[in-house]
Structures are given as structure tokens and as C-alpha cells.
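Lab meeting tomorrow. Please check the following:
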Amino acid sequence: MTVSITLVVVMGALYALGVFAMLERSLTRVLIGFLLLGNATNLLLLIAMGFPGVSPFHGNEGHQSDPLPQALMLTAIVITFAVSAFLLALIYRSWQLGQADTVEDDEEDLSLHERAGETEGVLDDEEEDAEEEDEETTDFSGTEAAPLTAVTPQQSDERGGDR
């Protein structure tokens, strides 16, 4: 079986454009990116399917095609359709609420981003302090390890434990 290099290049371009489109803040572009990824996946399964034009279960002579990628392609089509319908509903609802389909940062996201910057500096200071100290910094230093034992329900009742 020989694979056309054109199919491989088109598949790679669809994956690249799909990922690029999904990184945008516009929900419409996310939908377009997801559709491109779905088509690239179908093309990948078409390439992996086997010999073109050969049915999977027709006779024993000659080469036969693998039926599993055909079933996976049908599944990928259904999943792409369902997620596309969900994204279309999100885009419609977003347009109804705000007359725009872009995802914007709200106040809570911005405050989390600011707090992450503050805690990053604190964590760096703690790491520098830990590097300066040469002694162990764990809570278990200086204690001996004891094996764990299982307690049966009868032993738990004798000890006064709750059941």
C-alpha cells in the first residue's frame, strides 16, 4: 500500500490550522478550528484504512482493507457533529447575552492572575531559603518508621472505635 504524500501534507496542514484557530478567543474561530481538526482526523483514518476501493469482507482473494478505521471514522463524524452542535449553541447563547462571541477575562480571572504573580515571588523566596539551609526540612526527620497493621472490626470495637 502506498500513501499519497499529498494526503499527508493536507492532513498536517488541517491539524496545524485547526490548532491555530482553536487558540483564538472567538468562539466562531474555535468552532472552525474544531471542524478542521475533525476533518484532519477523518483524513488520518482514511490514510490508515488500507487499500482504496477494496471492501473489508469481500472474498479471500487479494488484499483486504481493515474495517476498524472505517468504524472509527464513522464515530469521529458523529462526535464532530455533536460537539459542533454544542459549540453552535454556545455561540448562539453568547451572542444573545453579549452581542459578541468572544471569551473575555472577568474580574475573578484577573484577580487570580495577579495573585499567581504574587505567590510566584513568595515561592521563589522560600526555595532560596531552603537552599541556604543544610538540615532536613521534612516533618518526619528524626522519627523511626513503624510497619502499618490492619485493624479488624472486632479489634476496633474492643478499642472503642466507631464502626
In short: The two ends are 66 Å apart (CA to CA). Residues 38 and 79 are 9 Å apart (CA to CA). The mean pLDDT is 78. Helices lie at 5-22, 27-48, 67-98, 107-132, 153-158.
